Amino acid sequence: MMTHVDKLKERNILIIEQDKERLTGLQNMLSAAGYRRLLCASEQDLVFELIRPFQGKVDEIGVIILNYQLPQSDTLKLCELLTTLDGHDAIPLIFVTDESIKIDDALLNKCHEANAATIIHHPKESNDIVPLISLALALKEERDDRIANEEKLVRELSERRIMEARLQYLVAHDELTGLSNRSGLEKALDFAILRCNNFKQHGALLDIDLDQFKVVNDIEGHEAGDRLLIEIATLIRATLDTEAFISRVGSNLFQVLLSKVNKAKALEVAEHLRMVIDEFDFVAEQNTYNISASIGVAIMAPLEKIRRPSELMSKAHHACYSAKTLGRNRVSLFEGEDENLVTLRNDAKWVPHIRRALSEDLFQLVFQPVVKVSDGHVSHYETLIRMIGDSGELLTPEQFIPVAERMGLINHIDLWVVSHIIDFIAALPKAKEEVCFTVNLSSHALQGDYLLPVLKKKLESSWISPSRLTFEITETAAVTNFEKTRLMVSKIRALGCRFAIDDFGAGFSSFNYIKNFPVDYLKIDGQFTQNLVVDSADQVLVKSMIDVAHSLGKKAIAEYVSNAEIFRILKEFGVDYVQGHLVGKAEVELLPSPYVSINDLLNKPIEIEKLITQ
User: Fold this and answer.
1) Residues whose CB is less than 8 angstroms from the CB of residue 555 and which lie 6 or more positions away in sequence, other chains included
2) Do 28 and 52 meet the contact criterion of CB atoms below 8 Å apart?
3) What Å distances lie between residue 100 and 96, 117, 447, CA to CA?
4) d(Cα 354, Cα 433) in Å, to the nearest integer?
């Protein structure tokens, strides 16, 4: 391995000596000491030939040995040239001269200013010059390292200042468009709210959502999408006056704070901006896209008593959402909490309760019998879910299932129900080994891939017969993404499970869907059976549904059978199974007997009772 001393000896040493005998002597002494890169010149012209290759890389020259008596030379200028090549710090310089020659003080002072210059009389032995050269090389390396470290430090400090300035800028600005970001907008809103509440200064916040952004982004790619955002940002800047505070707060969402405007003026500005954007055409490759925007407007007035920026931002965004649901490319004003906002807030309150029920197993299964009309046999039980409330009360699914569907929690409930019903069936005594159950699935269960592997694993580990499980999906869910749903139903049926269409007739679907859908039962929606005794139109529809089910080779189930009169009519129509309070309510325990007396059902007096929905 090369030592540090060996590395120093790899530096070039420039020797300028007009006496060839003394030049040879210097070469021999340095060569014997291990210095191999010796560059020699005997006159000034040859010096320039030697140093020309080192322009831009003077670090490769370690020491210059110069005869002070070089003929036909301005020694001072030559020294300045040699020791400050390319504007770098001086190269160590060693003057060799006769003892009788006195070196000019001005030259020495000049050389010392640039670098330490050393005088030595013509050496007779290597001990006279080699230690001096080693010292000069070591000093030069030390100085070079120091200079390099100083330059590195300066560079790092400069880069750090640039980075700090950039980060400080990005704290309040969007990197893509150069507009303010959400943080910057919130600060501006803080001041605007302060002026509004204390100095009665009106204002408005516009929420601008590009309607066709996803189309452009998906078809043309993210680069085109970014260019569209930049062009829209430029368009908004050019359209609004300089007092408008423009920000980009989301992917394709801009918000604009207007100061000193009333409601009429804010709506006028928003409508003008909408028209300008609507007239804008975005060109990407060979395609041209007409871009429109949905704009929500939230007014900031003293009577509104807005306390936080998020309140105003939320109102503007909700107004924009209303504009999109009403057809897009329009302006909508926030005028108070509507049904959608109330629903959203209600959902937000329910979410933690549902999550807690999932994590702490606070759901309860209840079972409602389904009776075969021909002989009164309890064909199966419909499995229903209840959630245990804070006070131990059972909450009906109408209270939490719609929330779970809207808030992305329904898949967890699907898995909970399927897993627990299989465990329940597996735990039943041998006397009830033939009892079957139906389970309601959400529309999401058949659109994703999360249900099938769990169901398959549970069936394999529990050893129950898959035929004891029938899954119910609504008619609307069945026809939504029909092919994908039908494929998933086929896969689950291949495991041995059965399927039923729930709420049949409620969705008014084409019978062609039902004809080609692989289910075993059609379950008539309860809205048709509840008033069956007094509504002749319902009687016609129910009779038709039963006939359709039989013609397709499927069994018909009627739910919400609450009294003997409804049961009697359904029996005459030929329905296969009935379910409802007449037969049995949803309970935690199963019926003690597998049969129900048909005569008892037909003769049971009608009770006036408030029906509890399933």
Assistant:
1) 520, 521, 522, 549, 576, 577
2) no
3) 12, 19, 104
4) 33
CA nearest neighbour of 575 among 387, 382, 414, 374 = 374
In the sheet that 93-97 helps form, which strands lie side by side, from edge to edge? Answer: 38-41, 12-16, 61-67, 93-97, 117-121
CA distances from 385 to 30, 366, 368, 421, 463 (A): 98, 6, 11, 10, 24
CB 423 within 8 A of CB 383: no
**Exposure class string for 264-282: b at 16+ Cβ within 10 A, else e:** eebbebbeebbeebeebeb
Burial zone of 318 (CB within 10 Å; 0-12 exposed, 13-18 middle, 19+ buried):
buried
Model pTM score: 0.59
User: Three-state DSSP class for 104?
Assistant: coil
Facing residues of 380 across strands? 370
Give bridge partners of residue 66 from the DSSP assignment.
Answer: 16, 95
* pLDDT tens per residue across span 428-450: 999 898 999 999 998 888 887 88
Q: What angle do CA 404, 405, 408 make, to 5 degrees?
A: 75
Residue 242: other Cβ atoms inside 10 A: 5
How many Cβ atoms are within 10 Å of 512's Cβ, its own excluded? Answer: 9
Closest CA to 255 of 216, 335, 218, 310: 310
Compute φ and ψ for 32, nearest 5 degrees: -65, -30
Q: Enumerate the H helices of 361-501 as residue ranges.
A: 397-406, 410-427, 451-462, 475-479, 482-494
pLDDT tens digits, one per residue of 135-163: 888 888 888 788 788 888 888 888 888 78
Domains in the chain, please, with CATH? Answer: 4-148 (3.40.50.2300), 182-336 (3.30.70.270), 347-603 (3.20.20.450)
Q: Say what angle helices 410-427 and 339-360 make with each other, to 10 degrees.
A: 40
